[in-house]
Design brief:
The complex is a heterodimer of chains A (271) and B (742).
Chain A (H helix, E strand, L loop, with lengths): L1 H15 L3 E6 L4 H14 L6 E6 L3 H11 L4 E5 L10 H12 L3 E5 L11 E5 L6 H15 L3 E8 L10 H29 L6 E8 L4 H9 L4 E5 L11 H11 L4 E5 L3 H5 L1
Chain B lengths: L6 H34 L3 H18 L6 E3 L2 H15 L3 H24 L11 H23 L10 H14 L5 H19 L13 H20 L31 H28 L8 H17 L6 E3 H9 L6 H16 L1 H4 L4 H16 L2 H9 L1 H17 L1 H20 L3 H5 L6 E7 L2 E6 L1 E3 L4 H9 L6 E5 L3 E4 L1 H16 L3 E5 L5 E2 L8 E2 L19 H13 L2 E3 L5 H7 L8 E11 L4 E10 L6 E10 L8 E5 L5 H7 L2 E2 L5 H6 L1 E4 L2 H7 L2 H8 L5 E5 L3 E4 L7 H21 L1
Parallel strand pairs in B: 4-6, 5-7, 6-8
Antiparallel strand pairs in B: 1-2, 3-4, 7-10, 9-10, 11-12, 12-13, 13-14, 14-19, 15-17, 15-18, 16-17, 18-19
Classes of the chains: A alpha/beta (271), B alpha+beta (742).
Chain lengths: 271, 742
């Protein structure tokens, strides 16, 4: 899997026009060096284009320090799609890192040696100060990756509309949901106007009622999206509580596809 | 159909039909209410109070339309148990303490309705609930069969010894006195009459319901017999007892036991059985409602709670919704809740003015009605139906039945649930998913197009997480088109399948549709459409079935029918050779084909519709995808290689081949479609104006030509039967268009 991740990240770095770093936490032995070299030569990547850093210690702590030392913008991690009792490792690193680190995070589930196109991107359209930046990032990445379609998924809480108990309330619920969707549509249009300049993708909107975080993950899976772009959790920003934390939990424990968690700083969110 | 109005307007509009229905129901309810008081071990008046209060209060406060409320069968068993345990042998003291428990259970019911636990009845495995109801039938039958033959107080208390003791009660008849013998004859005669009633041809006989016939005939026997012999024919011991001063004899329920566990045990059992019995009845009645109205179950629960509490305060039994009386109500033309009100009010009138007559009813005749009711609850004809769904379901049914008989109702259903879980763990080979998806969301509902919904279910669907699926289904207007996609589900249990079947029916009744797709690849545990569907077997990994002897799913049956009418050959599980045929298209190049299924073939026009299951992902993460497509091999036409689509699905292929975008000069067409290919001249020749006009006027289908055949599909997911039809018709017409040109 490491080889496929290398290939994938290298492609992404090239497309993004970014410098690629490889971090290794643990002892860097001769054997590691040998494997690493053979991977690169197999993939036809020039080792000089990559900066290799190695540190020993606790992966979570060291990864974070490596990121800040090297001024990293995007940290890519290979991840398992479904967590279970024995395979919580990668997601738990992701969880820790995305809450503490000041970097965006890319969790790769479908790395492959051959290039596979990233056609369909799903991005969250929550009513949240970070959303415009997240959508702008999704648009930027989509353009770079040559994606064709961007779906803005707006997760709506079922609590805000009537419950369908009988015929009357079902109708009432339908009316309320239509009204809410219209409002949300206007809001998202405004956001899109701000951040979709030069976008070559088809942009569609989908309003879905359901649990936040879970719904967008399930939607991305059902729609077979190639990339899911979401807001970073709020802990570090210090406002709006930790609402999103639990929501991200759903995505992390059952990754529907490759996930990009966009790190938005307080300044950016207010800008 | 014009739906009856609610409230006062509805009352003015429909009071005549409701009065008529309410009258007939009150005639049925009168004997049954007295009989159920008898079965509960309470004074005869208790059941009547429940019927009166239930009818009058729930008609005003309830959320359902044509239901009838009053004392219930299941409750009789629980109430008897409560009176016996709380009274410690003294039935009258026990009765007043049980009334306290009834009042508390009314409050609990109201709380259940307030916190919207109307979903409670759906939370239990179907087979376990059926087993519990059958056990209630046996419990009633076991006790009342003694009363029916004149043994008013059998020695045993629990159902199985009672059944055994029945033979000694029969022996007692050998040295019984005349009153005892007369009672036994009336009891057995009544039972025979009830059994044979449906066979009676004379229509005038059916103008009066069977239980009322029994009571009328028995009362006539008593009155005439008394006049002839000059003494009470059956003797006061064998007659219903409603004291003349029943109103002034009223006293407050006894709440002294409120600190004891037994009191709360009784209150909770009463609440539990009342809510299950009511909710199942309300659900059943929603299907019978001629106007297809949807009941507000939580509102009904609150109303039943209030009615139960008031009834308990006044000395009556718990108030529940009862299905038998409700269906009599509907078949006699009830339109609104007023029918329930009239039924209650009329019973009040009967009690006030016909008390003398009511006290002439012989108990064995009422016991015969109860024995008959108990037998109907047991309903032995359901055994074979349950066995058809799956033998494991039959096992669960009998397991719950015996557990209930031995350990009581609550323990019975709890053990039934536990057994169901154990069986599901055995079938799936692991309990991890059951635990994992018990409390974690696994459903997604979104509106794909206006009034077209997609409901996607992940991983695991059983009775424990069904409430979430239910709440999604309930939120969709029943006139909508819904596709429930189970292609990423690995297990669906019989309870969920049963509920889904109900929803399919309800959507169809209201002009909508609910299609279940993605179940075809699950191996059913039996040949019944409601059977457990599972992808896994014990000890092995996820597997897909491919065998000719597997039974067809509901969708496959429909496809088979469609194939018959459309002149197509249908093969549910085609030969694996199809994998390679499908694989020739570029679209499948990056996918590995797991399985092909549901092949519809028209050999004359060389058209094949087929469903393909593929997966992507090189490592352990398999992400499988269903696709329904048509493959067309037009005869005598040279096909150029091209791809045509709108959502740019094919671009992921052209990405590698570097094909050119081709504009054909037709504005509508070029705007809507994205055509790519290498041999531009041949492609221009292929798309004749007739062809373009046809494509422009139809929904966007995706097409790929590999030079030999055409691949056509609509959406990248499993298709419903109607989508199959749409696709086949499109392909046929398209094939005609390209044929017409040459």
């Amino acid at each position: 899997m490491a080889k496929a991740n290398l290939a994938e990240v290298h492609r992404i770095a090239t497309r993004f026009g970014a410098q690629m770093f490889v971090f290794h936490v643990g002892k860097w032995t001769e054997k590691s060096q040998k494997t690493y070299d053979s991977f690169l030569s197999d993939l036809g990547i020039d080792p000089a284009t990559i900066v290799l850093k190695s540190k020993e210690g606790d992966p979570k702590v060291e990864l974070l320090s490596l990121c800040s030392e090297n001024d990293i913008d995007l940290l890519a991690l290979g991840a398992l799609m479904r967590e279970n009792m024995f395979k919580v490792f990668s997601a738990s690193i992701a969880r820790d890192v995305c809450r503490k680190a000041k970097v965006s995070l890319l969790l790769l589930t479908h790395s492959s040696i051959m290039e596979e196109p990233c056609d369909r991107i799903v991005v969250n359209g929550l009513d949240h100060p970070k959303t415009p930046d997240t959508i702008a990032t999704a648009v930027w990445a989509g353009n770079k990756l040559g994606s064709k379609e961007l779906i803005v998924v707006d997760e709506l809480s079922e609590k805000s509309i009537a419950r369908a108990d009988d015929d009357m309330s079902t109708l009432q619920r339908l009316r309320q949901s239509r009204q809410l969707e219209k409002q949300e549509h206007n809001r998202i249009e405004e956001v899109l106007d701000l951040c979709t300049g030069g976008c070559t993708m088809d942009i569609t909107e989908q309003h879905v009622f359901g649990k936040k975080g879970y719904t967008i993950a399930h939607y991305a899976k059902a729609k077979r999206a190639d990339l899911l772009v979401v807001n970073s959790p709020d802990t570090k920003l210090g406002f709006l509580d930790r609402i999103f934390k639990h929501d991200l939990e759903y995505i992390l424990s059952d990754l529907p596809t490759d996930v990009l968690i966009v790190h938005t700083t307080k300044e950016l969110a207010h800008a | 159909m014009h739906k009856p109005k609610n409230g006062f307007k509805g009352f003015i509009e429909n009071w005549q039909s409701d009065l008529k229905a309410g009258f007939v129901v009150s005639l049925v309810a009168l004997p049954i209410s007295i009989a159920l008081s008898l079965a509960s071990g309470a004074p005869a008046i208790a059941g009547l109070i429940a019927a009166v209060i239930g009818g009058i209060l729930v008609a005003h406060l309830g959320g359902s339309y044509v239901t009838i409320t009053g004392p219930g069968n299941g409750l009789a068993v629980v109430t008897l148990a409560a009176i016996t345990t709380l009274g410690g042998g003294d039935m009258l003291a026990g009765y007043y303490m049980a009334l306290g428990a009834i009042v508390v259970s009314g409050i609990l019911l109201f709380i259940l309705g307030t916190v919207r636990l109307g979903v409670l009845a759906d939370l239990f495995p179907t087979s376990a609930v059926q087993g519990m109801l059958a056990a209630i039938g046996i419990i009633i039958l076991a006790k009342q069969s003694h009363v029916m033959i004149g043994t008013l107080h059998p020695e045993s208390a629990s159902p199985i010894p009672l059944l055994v003791e029945f033979f000694s009660s029969l022996q007692d008849l050998l040295w019984a006195d005349t009153a005892h013998l007369r009672s036994a004859i009336v009891g057995i005669g009544s039972l025979l009459f009830l059994i044979g009633f449906s066979q009676i041809r004379a229509r005038w006989m059916h103008a009066i319901p069977a239980p009322l016939w029994v009571v009328v005939l028995a009362v006539l026997t008593q009155i005439i017999g008394t006049n002839v012999t000059g003494e009470s024919f059956f003797g006061p011991k064998y007659l219903v007892n409603i004291p003349a001063d029943w109103m002034s004899a009223w006293r407050l329920p006894d709440f002294s036991g409120i600190q004891s566990g037994a009191f709360w045990g009784a209150a909770i059992s009463l609440t539990f059985i009342a809510s299950i019995e009511s909710l199942l009845s309300i659900k059943g009645m929603d299907r019978l409602d001629p106007y297809k109205r949807k009941s507000n179950v939580n509102k009904d629960l609150r109303a039943l709670g209030i009615a139960t509490a008031v009834s308990g305060m006044l000395g009556g039994l718990s108030v529940v919704t009862v299905i038998a009386r409700s269906s009599v109500n509907v078949s006699n033309g009830a339109k609104t809740r007023s029918a329930n009100f009239f039924h209650g009010a009329l019973i009040l009138v009967f009690v006030l003015f016909l008390r003398e007559v009511l006290t002439q009813i012989p108990l064995p005749a009422l016991a015969a009605i109860l024995v008959f009711t108990g037998y109907k609850l047991l309903n032995p004809s359901q055994f074979s139906k349950i066995a058809q769904i799956g033998l494991e379901q039959l096992f669960l049914f009998f397991f719950t039945l015996f557990a209930t008989l031995v350990y009581g109702l609550i323990m019975g259903i709890v053990l039934g649930m536990a057994a169901t879980l154990v069986i599901q763990v055995i079938i799936t080979g692991s309990g991890a998913d059951i635990v994992r998806y018990f409390n974690r969301p696994n459903t997604l509902l979104f509106e794909e197009e206006e009034n077209k919904y997609i409901l996607n279910i992940n991983y695991f669907a059983n009775f424990l997480n069904y409430p979430r699926l239910k709440s999604k289904l309930d939120s969709i207007p029943t006139s909508a088109e819904v596709i429930a996609d189970f292609s990423s589900t690995s297990f669906v249990d019989a309870t969920v399948m049963e509920h889904l079947a109900g929803y399919v029916e309800s959507f169809e009744q209201h002009g909508g549709s609910l299609d279940l797709v993605g179940l075809d690849t699950l191996a059913p545990a039996s040949s019944h459409p409601l059977g457990v569907q599972s992808k896994s077997t014990r000890g092995s990994d996820v597997f897909l079935v491919r065998s000719s002897d597997t039974r067809l799913s509901g969708k496959q049956e429909k496809l088979r029918k469609f194939a018959g009418t459309a002149g197509l050959e249908y093969t549910p599980w085609p030969d694996p050779i199809w994998d390679t045929k499908v694989n020739q298209f570029h679209y499948f190049r990056h996918r590995r084909i797991d399985q092909t299924m549901n092949l519809l073939e028209d050999r004359s026009t060389r058209l094949m519709a087929i469903e393909v299951v593929t997966h992507v992902g090189e490592f352990t993460m398999r992400d499988s995808q269903h696709l329904a497509c048509v493959i067309l091999q037009p005869k005598g036409i040279k096909l150029p290689k091209f791809t045509l689509d709108r959502e740019r699905i094919f671009e992921r292929i052209s990405y590698f081949t570097g094909a050119q975008d081709i504009e054909l000069g037709s504005n509508v067409f070029d705007k809507r479609f994205n055509l790519k290919g290498e041999d531009e001249k041949a492609i221009r020749a292929f798309f004749s104006p007739a062809c373009l006009a046809f494509l422009a006027s139809h929904p966007v289908f995706h097409m790929e030509s590999n030079g030999k055949a055409l691949l056509i599909f609509h959406k990248e997911r499993a298709a419903s039967v109607s989508e199959f039809k749409l696709m086949v018709n499109f392909a046929r017409e398209f094939s005609d268009r390209i044929g017409a040109k040459s």
